[in-house]
Amino acid sequence: QKAQAIGVDMVAIVGAECGGHPGMDLVGTMVNVGLAERRLTIPFLLGGGIGAGSQIVAALAGGAAGVVIGTRLLGADEIAAHDDYKAALVAAGERDTALTMGSVRNTIRTLKNQTTAIVTALEAETPDIGIEALLPHVAGTIGRRAYETGDTSHGMLSAGQALGLLERTAPLADIIAQLEQEALAALARLRPQARISRQEAAQ
């Protein structure tokens, strides 16, 4: 809403399910799309846990101009990450993420690993720990090594709850084709309901 008020042309909104930074309030994606439809007049994109074609249809039906997809596309062959890194994401599910760094007002959702366990414990022991004490564990250089080596045990590796929808690695074109097929199937499910509604309205 603030972005709209200062003249921004378009915004991307991500819900609590997203990988990376979902904000401090952790408002879910479905709530966000309902609020955006009511409160925004500028176009908006919706993200956060989106990894199926049916979700794209739902977002568009809610007024979004498009969607933001991150985690689901990390399995694309074109992503320049180690095969073992991608394999770890494929093996993970929607319950295999952790929220940390809320103590420094920079909440992040990442793949659960040794680093998230350490940071969770540190934040619990010292709620006002501060970023300097966390940096030896959360520095971006540590995470980058996971992409290069495939060792996902350390680093803050952004991943959302759409991990449950990441079932295999594939070329990007194949992933997009699957999303398109799922979206068309979702639309087909809606058509009979639309016909019934029109008939009821006519009566």
Summarize the structure.
The chain has 203 residues and is mainly alpha-helical. It is built from 8 helices and 5 strands, in the order αβαβαβαββαααα.
Structure, described:
This protein is 46% helix and 9% strand. The longest helix has 31 residues, at 172-202. The protein has a single domain (2-202), classed as TIM Barrel (Alpha-Beta Barrel). The protein has helices spanning 2-5, 29-39, 53-61, 83-91, 114-125, 131-138, 140-149, 172-202, and strands at residues 11-14, 44-47, 66-68, 97-100, 108-111. It contains eight helices and five strands, in the order αβαβαβαββαααα. The chain is globular. With 203 residues, it is mostly helical.
Portion of residues in beta strands equals 5-15%
Q: Specify the helix fraction band.
A: 40-55%
Number of strands: 5
Supply the number of helical segments.
Answer: 8
Overall body shape: globular
Largest beta-sheet details: 3 strands, parallel
- Name the structural class: mainly alpha
Keywords:
single chain, 203 residues, mainly alpha, TIM Barrel, two-stranded antiparallel sheet
SSE diagram, text form:
Layout: H1 2-5, E1 11-14, H2 29-39, E2 44-47, H3 53-61, E3 66-68, H4 83-91, E4 97-100, E5 108-111, H5 114-125, H6 131-138, H7 140-149, H8 172-202
Parallel strand pairs: 1-2, 2-3
Antiparallel strand pairs: 4-5
Helix pairs in contact: 3-8
